[in-house]
Amino acid sequence: MMSKFTIHIADSLQDIPVAAWNTLAGDDPFLRHEFFSALHESGCVSRETGWSPQFITLWERSILRGGMPLYQKSHSYGEYVFDWAWANAYQRYGHAYYPKLLSAIPFSPVTGRRLMAETVAHRALLISAAMKIGQESNRGATVSSFHCLFPQEHEAREMEAAGMTLRQGIQFHWKNREEGKYENFEDFLGGMSHGKRKKIRQERRKVHASGIRFQWLSGHDISNACWRFFVDCYNKTYDDHRSMPYLNLEFFVQLGKSMPENILLILALRGDEPIAAALNLHNSHTLYGRYWGTKEFIPGLHFETCYYQAIDYCIAHGIELFEGGAQGEHKLARGFLPVRTWSAHWLAHPEFAAAIGDYLGREAQDIDHYLNELNDSSPFRKEVGK
């Protein structure tokens, strides 16, 4: 089959035609050529920051049939599937864990396609190409492993069939009603238990009693001043957690200009003065909560700006799913339900591969138990079928 196809490894997006790549990406905003270009051209993702692009493309003559975002990495920052313990184990035994190969959306723990191809056979060629890079590089003692983060489950199963080991995680997502979408926020609350419904109403009242109002801005409506305010809030969030931000003003401004239809900025204002902001990306069926920050602490402001306003937006626009980001068991009480996430891993060193595979098998059992416990604590009344 490979006689019909050619694999090309692109270390620059300029080598990949925009229209052809976006045809593969479909409506996923995180896979668009413009999204990766903003990351790369702003300098947020580069060799200097430890992300060296090695995008895999699959060609049938002049037609792009498949693609995979792929980086060679010198660290594990910005991934949200943590393998620091694996890297430490390698180091203790005198082996180099970095660089490694990573297929992921930088700084974005969002589930989506990583094997951008229509057929199982084409996707198998992409997997094979990535593993071949790892195997050939490993003979030169340069790459320890290949990891694919937050793929769709069917892709994860195809990677497992190709010899990779699967890892599971849990996120919390809000889902619109399947039969007859929610009419408004009160309709959504109507399916929850009395205690959870009462608490959310109290949280929302406190914020609005503080004189806070909200604006929803699409990328077309976001001024440079708004972007500067948002980035100040974004930087403050990282500073409050004593860490360095991954992204810069240039990235956000370029994103707003190149894909404005996929941007939602929620501004919290007192009078005409903005005090907090939350940035989301979206398509017609999914809203992805990404970053937030505030200039002052107001009880409940985080939940209102990041979650309740976003749910209001989803209901108003008929959006089916809201992915609120990584972590957050506190989201359960606010109407977000647990979902299983996936990653796939291949390690060149056979003894480490066996040990990590054994660990991931035990971890998967723990995930099953945790998921059952979370589902038993659903905030929705049993009679509404939640």
Written overview of the protein:
- This protein has 386 residues and is α+β, with helices and mostly antiparallel strands.
- The protein has 2 domains: 2-169 and 340-376, Gcn5-related N-acetyltransferase (GNAT) (Aminopeptidase), CATH 3.40.630.30; 177-319, Aminopeptidase, CATH 3.40.630.
- It is built from 11 helices and 15 strands.
- The chain has helices spanning 18-25, 33-41, 84-92, 120-139, 153-161, 185-189, 194-209, 224-240, 249-258, 301-317, 350-376, and strands at residues 6-10, 51-53, 55-60, 63-68, 71-73, 100-103, 116-117, 145-149, 165-175, 212-218, 263-270, 273-282, 286-294, 321-323, 337-347.
- The strands form 2 sheets. Strands 2-5-6-8-15-9-14-13-12-11-10 form an 11-stranded mixed β-sheet.
- Helix 2 packs antiparallel against helix 9.
- It is globular, with a radius of gyration of 22 Å.
- The model has no long low-confidence stretch (mean pLDDT 94).
Q: Report the β-strand fraction as a percent range.
A: 15-25%
Tally of domains: 2
- Count of runs of 4 or more consecutive helical residues: 11
Strand order of the largest sheet: 2-5-6-8-15-9-14-13-12-11-10
Give the end-to-end Cα distance, rounded to a whole number of Å.
46 Å
Write down how many β-strands occur, each being a DSSP E stretch of 2 or more residues.
Answer: 15
Please identify which CATH superfamily of the largest domain we are dealing with: Gcn5-related N-acetyltransferase (GNAT)
- What is the CATH top level name of the largest domain? Alpha Beta
Taking the sheet with the most strands, its summary is:
11 strands, mixed
CATH topology of the largest domain: Aminopeptidase
- Give the averaged pLDDT, no decimals: 94
The dominant shape is globular
Order of helices and strands: EHHEEEEHEEHEHEHHEHHEEEHEEH
Query: Are there runs of 5+ residues with pLDDT below 50, and where?
Result: none
Say what oligomer this is: single chain
